[in-house]
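As the next step, I needed to go through one protein, both as residues and as discrete backbone shape codes, included below for the reader:
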Amino acid sequence: MQSQDVAKRPAASPTDPAVDVEQAEAALVEHYPRLVRLAYLVLPPSLGRNRRVLTAHALTQRALPRGRASASVIPAQSTGRDGDPGYAFVRLQVVRTALEAGLPLSFRSWPKRSQLPPLLPQVWGLRLFPRSGGADELALDQRLSALSGPARAVYVLRGLEQLPDGDVRRVLTAAGVDEVDAALREADEAPERYGLLESPEFDPCSLHARPTDLMRRRQHGKAALAAAAAVIVCGALLALPGGGWGPDGAAAPAYAENPAAEAALNPGKLARVAPTAWEFSARKDFSVWPARGDLTKNTALLRRALAVWARPGESVQVSATPGTPSGGPAGPPQLLYAGTVDNARVVILYDGLRIARYAEPKDGTKGAALDFARVDGATGSEANAVVLDRADGNVRYLTAPWIKKAAERDLQKPNAGALPLTLTDGITSPLASPAQQTGACTSWNVLQLTDDTGTRLMSDLGELVPAHLTAGRPGSVHEASGSQAQHAWAPFACSLGAMRSLGVRSVNAWQYAQQPLPNASGAGAWTCTRAETWRGGGERVLAQFQTPGGTFGAVVAKAQDVPACGPRDPHVLAGVLWKSAAGHWYLLAAGSEGTESITATGGVTGSAKGGLLAVKTRQGAQAELKGALDDGRTISGLR
């Protein structure tokens, strides 16, 4: 059935815009994570998760044209890539090759390149697969696996790319699918759980690693050793004086005999800070945290934690935030905590760059877990707390020694007040975590911490270190703990869910414009939220619009790896289609302070002086926004 659904590629229209290699490469690099996710979701699950991951990356990386090519511009709707021929071209290539990869091999013709295991990328000795999701993600994955390739592509283009059926039809037709109507009808039968497509379950760029079949590798290794012996003997001749390999010179001995490496795995060499060291230190960071917990003298536990850090076994669940290396410590790390938490023994270590959390059951070591988070340069608010334990939807924190009080606050309800949490040797009582919540977002609980200098809000985003919440114009932000800042954050609290598992350091919310609405409908508020990361890349920006009296803000544009709405470039421009109470549609757009004019082109044409634009239009219209700044620069609408 599926072998008949994908036909020969239709010829390009002479009116299609031309796409060169540079334009396609720019689109591919900018939207690489989304394109790889698109390929992973369209590929048949029968390939297995490891091969799906590698194939998704291979197909995406091979999507560039060899020269100039033609591509139909199929808008990407609310994702902000509207009208970009480069993105339309590489997306089409990804969909086409992902569908081809699902075709059965035939003896009548040579296999297509996409049907064969990818030559690159390859990872030897490891199986890679995305993070596991919950029951909803598993059910959706099983439902998608039951669809044909074209129907799966329809579902993903509708949900991930937010394309209307007309544009989905154009993509599939351009990809060579014959029975487009049948694919649309088949996809209609799947439940519309489109929000789950953004889940880490389907993210082939954030991966877990496990070893392959160790016994088979051992058998193959013995055969390879015999074959390599002759090569080694011949190579030894080349190492003789006069040429070839030379001695190791000043290099240290082998790892097992390296004193620095051995010291890093010796629990007796762990750095421990005095309980009062932070009171006299000029810095406030993890380096002045004392060692706490009831098992700080349990040498056997500490030895296991260090050994697993250096050599995690097959049964160990290892996770790391993006951009965080997971290799062993270079020298003896610092002990922050070793103790019993609920039904587990937990050890938290710090090596100057990373926080490493080791946890094992109280009744053994089976099911041990090792988590890493990058924290280089953490000071003050960023070094206030570390996740100690998660259980039953709750989270418990280990706080800095300078924290005086802790409380739980619902960011959506700024008038509700904070609920105090008990602090016992720096450990908070459990509080409900929003990181794992599914379904409708009805609350967003954050951690409120108070020291001698003030109060700060931290949000759990599913990582070891909570994100620091701030508010205000980039470059002059302030804490989000004040009443005004909390009211500013309340409509956009649930948008923090889009920042989960990205290695987020801090998130700032800034209301950059207010816009009077047509027909005397009140004033709408424009806010941008920007998440900064520990690795200095992958920043995520959301532009959100709140109608008068609206409880929640709506995300109208999003972008990643852009300076907009940040301290380097505080300017931002975004637009949205809005329907008035009288039933009329308008394109609304707003730029931040310093915007002299805004121009809309494409499906909507109009311009306005200043930072606000309102143009009457029709439902579903597409527009490209350009803004002129008072310093002479131009900016584009947020993508």
In short: Confidence is low (pLDDT under 50) at residues 1-15, 72-80, 233-255. The longest helix spans residues 214-238.
